[in-house]
C-alpha cells in the first residue's frame, strides 16, 4: 500500500501458495499483491522484488502488468530510489492516458484498471509530499484516490493507507483538527480489520497529531498506549514511535527523557543505507537535545553529521533547525560573538514552518540578552510572541474541534453498540422462557441505565473541557494586554531619560504571567498586583495624580475570591481613558480610588472611582477590549452558579456640578464557585 511514513504489515500467507506462480482469478491476484506488500513492510525486500519480477514476466494483460509495476514503485519508495520512482510513475501515467476506459468491465473488487488509477493517485500524493515537500498537492491526489477507492470497493488495507496518508498531509499543512478527524476514520476502519499492526500505525498518527496540537495530556495517553506494543511493531513503525515520542517530550522541555528515544530511533536504522534519511533526522534531533543539556562536544558531532547529509540532500527545513541548534551551541560555549555573526549571516525562508521560526527567535533573544543588546532582544521577543500567540490561538481552536470530533466518533460507536445490544436482547426474548427472559430484561435494563449514565458523564466531561478551553482562550488575551502596555511605558520612560522602576516592572510581569493561568484569585493578591501596576503608571502622570485604597475593617481580603485581573482592568481603563486624557488644572487633583466594603451579609463589593473624563455618548456602544473580556469571563462563570456576580460601569453622580468621573464596580457572592 502507499503509506507516507510506513507500510502496515500483516501475517504472511505465502506458505499456502506455491511460490509466485501466476494466478488468473482476481481474488487470488489481490491476495498475492497484499502478501507482497506485507513483505515490503516487513523489510523482506529481496523476496518481494523476486515475486514482482516473476509476476511482471507472467502478466497476461497490460492492466495486470502495470499493477505489478506499481508494486515495484512501492519498493523503490522504501529504498528512496527517487529517480526510478519518477520514471515508473510516468510510464504508468502514459498507459492510463492512452487506455480506452469504455471497453473495461469492473471485476469483483473493482477492475484492475480502476485499481491501477487509485494506486497511481496514491503514489503521486506520496511523491509530492515526501519527495517534493508539497503536502497541499499531495492532498489533492490522495483525496482523488479515496474517491476512486470508494467507487471500486477496494480492500480495506488500501483504504486505510489512503486515510492515514490524508491525516498526515493535513498534519503537515497545519490543519490538525482535520488530521485528527481523518485518523478517527482510519481507526474506525482498522477496528473492523482485526489487524493489530493496522491499529498500531493509526495510534501512532493520533499521538503525533495531539503532540503538534500541544495537547500533551492526550498525546501522553496515546503514546503510552502505543508503547505497550513496540516489541510487536514493524521496524518502520518502531522508528516513528521512538522519533515522534522523543519530539513530544522535547516540546514539553523534558530533554533528559527525550534523549533515550532519539538514541533508540538512530540505533534502529543505523547502517541501513535505505534508512539514511531517518538516521540523520534522529541525529539532528539528538544534536539539539545535547545543546540544551550542555553536552557541547556530542552536540557538535551530531549536528555536523546531520548537516552534511541534508546539505547534500538539499532539504532546507531540517538544515534551518540545525543552524538554530548551532547558534544555541555557540551560546552554550560562551562564543556570543560567533553566535551573533551566525545570526547575521542566516536568513529565514518565507515557507519556513512557524514552529521552526519561533525556535530560532527564542535562541536569538537569548543571544541578544547575553550580549546586553536589549532593544534587539525586545524586538525579537515581540516578534516571537506574535507568532506564538497566533500558533496558540490556532492550536486552541483545533483542540476544541478535535475534542468535538472525538466526541462524535465515540457517540457513533456507542450507537452501534446500542444496536448490537438491542439485537442481542431481542434474540434472548425470542428463545428464552418467560421467567428467564424477565430476569434478563431486568439485568439488561440496569446495564443500559448504567451505560446511559456513563454516556451522560462522558458528555458532561467533554462540554466542561470545551468551556475550559474557551476560558483559557479568553484569559490568554488579558495578561499580554496589560504587560505590553507596562513595557511600552517603561521603554518611553527610559527614552525620555526618566527613572525606570525595574523592581515594580519585574513583579508586575511575574504576577501577570501567574494570573494568566488562574480563573480566580484572592482580593489581596489582586490589590498587590494593582499596586505594582499603578506604581509604574504613576511615573507617567504628573504630581497631581493621587491613588488610594479604602477598605472596611470587616473585609478580610485574603478570604475574598474574585475573577483574576478583573479589578485590574477597571484600574487600567480609569487611568488610560479617564485620568490621563484629562487636562491638568492647578490646585486640583486627578484621583483614583478603590473602595472595598461588604454588601449585605453574603457579598463583597469593589468599586473603582475616578474623576476623569467620564463615559462619552458612544462609550456604551464601543466597549474596550478589556471590558469585553470582563463581560465574557463573568458570563461564563455565572453559567455555573446560582448566585451571580454583578458588575457594571457608569458615570459618577456624587461629584460637584461640572465635574465628571466614572464608577466601575463588581459584587462577588461569598459562595461563588469558580470551578467549571
Automatic annotation (TrEMBL):
SUPFAM superfamilies: ATPase domain of HSP90 chaperone/DNA topoisomerase II/histidine kinase, TPR-like. Residues 470-543 form the Signal transduction histidine kinase internal region domain. Gene3D superfamilies: Histidine kinase-like ATPase, C-terminal domain, Tetratricopeptide repeat domain. The keyword Nucleus does not apply. The chain crosses the membrane at residues 424-450. Coiled coil: none annotated. One of its GO terms (molecular function) is kinase activity. InterPro entries: Bact_2-comp_sensor_kinase (IPR050640), HATPase_C_sf (IPR036890), Sig_transdc_His_kin_internal (IPR010559), TPR-like_helical_dom_sf (IPR011990), TPR_rpt (IPR019734). Keywords: Kinase, Membrane, Transferase, Transmembrane, Transmembrane helix. It holds the Pfam family TPR_19. It comes from the Bacteria. This is Histidine kinase.
Amino acid at each position: 500500500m502507499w503509506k507516507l511514513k510506513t507500510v502496515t504489515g500483516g501475517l504472511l500467507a505465502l506458505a499456502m501458495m506455491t511460490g509466485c506462480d501466476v494466478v488468473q482469478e482476481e481474488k487470488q491476484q489481490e491476495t498475492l499483491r497484499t502478501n507482497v506488500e506485507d513483505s515490503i513492510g516487513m523489510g523482506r525486500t529481496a523476496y518481494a522484488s523476486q515475486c514482482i519480477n516473476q509476476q511482471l514476466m507472467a502478466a497476461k494483460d497490460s492492466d495486470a502488468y502495470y499493477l505489478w509495476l506499481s508494486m515495484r514503485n512501492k519498493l523503490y519508495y522504501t529504498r528512496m530510489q527517487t529517480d526510478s520512482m519518477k520514471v515508473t510513475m510516468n510510464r504508468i501515467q502514459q498507459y492510463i492516458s492512452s487506455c480506452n476506459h469504455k471497453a473495461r468491465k469492473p471485476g469483483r473488487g473493482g477492475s484492475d484498471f480502476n485499481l491501477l488509477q487509485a494506486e497511481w493517485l496514491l503514489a503521486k500524493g506520496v511523491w509530492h509530499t515526501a519527495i517534493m515537500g508539497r503536502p497541499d498537492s499531495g492532498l489533492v491526489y490522495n483525496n482523488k484516490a479515496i474517491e476512486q477507492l470508494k467507487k471500486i470497493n477496494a480492500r480495506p488495507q488500501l483504504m486505510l493507507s489512503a486515510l492515514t496518508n490524508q491525516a498526515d498531509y493535513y498534519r503537515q499543512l497545519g490543519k490538525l483538527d482535520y488530521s485528527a478527524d481523518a485518523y478517527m476514520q482510519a481507526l474506525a476502519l482498522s477496528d473492523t480489520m482485526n489487524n493489530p499492526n493496522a491499529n498500531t500505525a493509526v495510534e501512532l498518527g493520533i499521538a503525533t497529531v495531539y503532540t503538534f496540537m500541544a495537547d500533551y495530556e492526550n498525546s501522553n495517553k496515546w503514546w503510552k498506549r502505543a508503547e505497550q506494543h513496540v516489541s510487536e511493531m514493524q521496524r518502520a513503525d518502531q522508528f516513528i514511535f521512538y522519533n515522534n515520542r522523543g519530539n513530544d517530550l522535547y516540546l514539553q522541555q523534558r530533554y533528559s527523557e527525550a534523549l533515550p528515544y532519539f538514541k533508540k530511533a538512530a540505533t534502529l536504522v543505523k547502517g541501513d543505507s535505505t534508512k539514511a534519511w531517518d538516521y540523520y533526522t534522529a541525529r539532528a534531533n539528538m544534536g539539539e537535545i545535547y545543546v540544551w543539556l550542555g553536552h557541547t562536544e556530542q552536540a557538535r558531532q551530531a549536528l555536523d553529521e546531520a548537516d552534511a547529509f541534508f546539505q547534500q540532500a538539499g532539504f532546507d527545513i531540517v538544515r534551518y533547525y540545525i543552524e538554530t541548534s548551532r547558534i544555541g551551541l555557540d551560546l552554550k560555549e560562551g562564543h556570543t560573538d560567533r553566535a551573533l555573526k551566525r545570526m547575521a549571516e542566516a536568513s529565514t525562508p518565507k515557507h519556513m514552518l512557524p514552529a521552526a521560526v519561533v525556535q530560532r527567535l527564542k535562541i536569538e533573544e537569548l543571544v541578544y540578552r547575553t550580549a546586553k543588546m536589549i532593544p534587539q532582544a525586545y524586538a525579537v521577543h515581540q516578534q516571537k510572541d506574535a507568532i506564538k500567540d497566533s500558533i496558540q490561538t490556532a492550536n486552541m481552536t483545533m483542540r476544541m474541534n478535535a475534542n468535538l470530533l472525538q466526541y462524535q466518533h465515540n457517540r457513533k460507536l456507542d450507537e452501534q453498540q446500542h444496536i448490537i445490544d438491542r439485537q442481542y436482547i431481542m434474540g434472548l426474548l425470542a428463545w428464552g422462557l418467560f421467567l428467564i427472559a424477565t430476569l434478563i430484561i431486568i439485568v439488561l435494563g440496569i446495564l443500559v441505565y448504567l451505560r446511559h449514565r456513563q454516556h451522560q458523564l462522558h458528555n458532561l466531561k467533554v462540554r466542561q473541557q470545551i468551556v475550559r478551553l474557551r476560558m483559557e482562550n479568553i484569559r490568554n488575551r488579558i495578561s499580554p494586554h496589560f504587560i505590553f502596555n507596562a513595557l511600552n511605558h517603561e521603554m518611553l520612560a527610559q527614552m525620555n531619560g526618566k527613572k525606570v522602576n525595574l523592581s515594580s516592572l519585574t513583579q508586575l510581569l511575574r504576577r501577570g504571567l501567574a494570573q494568566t493561568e488562574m480563573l480566580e484569585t484572592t482580593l489581596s493578591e489582586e490589590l498587590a498586583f494593582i499596586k505594582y501596576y499603578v506604581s509604574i503608571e504613576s511615573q507617567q502622570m504628573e504630581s497631581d495624580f493621587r491613588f488610594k485604597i479604602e477598605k472596611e475593617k470587616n473585609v478580610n481580603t485574603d478570604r475574598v475570591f474574585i475573577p483574576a485581573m478583573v479589578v485590574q482592568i477597571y484600574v487600567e481603563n480609569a487611568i488610560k481613558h479617564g485620568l490621563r486624557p484629562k487636562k491638568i488644572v492647578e490646585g486640583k487633583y486627578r484621583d483614583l480610588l478603590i473602595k472595598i466594603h461588604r454588601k449585605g451579609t453574603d457579598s463583597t463589593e469593589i468599586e473603582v472611582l475616578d474623576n476623569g473624563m467620564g463615559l462619552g455618548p458612544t462609550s456604551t456602544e464601543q466597549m474596550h477590549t478589556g471590558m469585553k473580556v470582563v463581560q465574557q469571563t463573568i458570563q461564563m462563570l455565572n453559567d455555573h452558579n446560582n448566585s451571580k456576580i454583578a458588575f457594571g460601569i457608569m458615570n459618577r453622580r456624587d461629584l460637584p456640578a461640572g465635574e465628571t468621573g466614572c464608577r466601575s464596580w463588581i459584587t462577588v457572592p461569598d459562595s461563588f464557585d469558580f470551578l467549571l
